[in-house]
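Students often ask why we bother encoding 3D structure as a string. The short answer is that it lets us treat folding as translation between two languages. Here is a chain of 160 residues written in the first language.
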Amino acid sequence: MQFEELRYVCQQAALDLVRQKGRPLPPTVVLPGPERTALVTLPDLPATDEERHTVLAQLAHDRISTDQVPCWGFVAEADAGGEDVVVVVYGARRHAPHLTASRFAEDGDLDEFVPDQELDPTALPFLHPLQHAVDALPAVGDVFGAVDPKRGGGGLPLVP
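And here it is in the second language, the structure alphabet:
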């Protein structure tokens, strides 16, 4: 999977979550793997960045380092300028994390995602363990695995 495909997979995960879970949208980590993409929902994600960091560091150890997943995504509902949006952050080995977002449409689905931009290193510090875990994996070049985002077969599997 190329980095641009990772963006597509994470945005599709956000769409699937909105359709399957509804609102409020649970914070979810996207883990594209060679066999399938897993969505790990975190309904009890703590309120403070320090506690979130601890939770995501454990998840990174258990799911990214152990399974050698060289890329990740994070999907969450947020307030941006007084509007409810879905924020999607994604990163991969040797690639700085990027951020995009979409407003909720009147029908409850998502509008188009805004163009992505590189995430400021000081923003969302609780996500750092995910990026550190993929950066620590053995070199795999610029190819992140054999995940095919066009494989069809319904929605992405949800892991509680």
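Translate back mentally: The chain has three helices and seven strands. Keep this in mind for the problem set.
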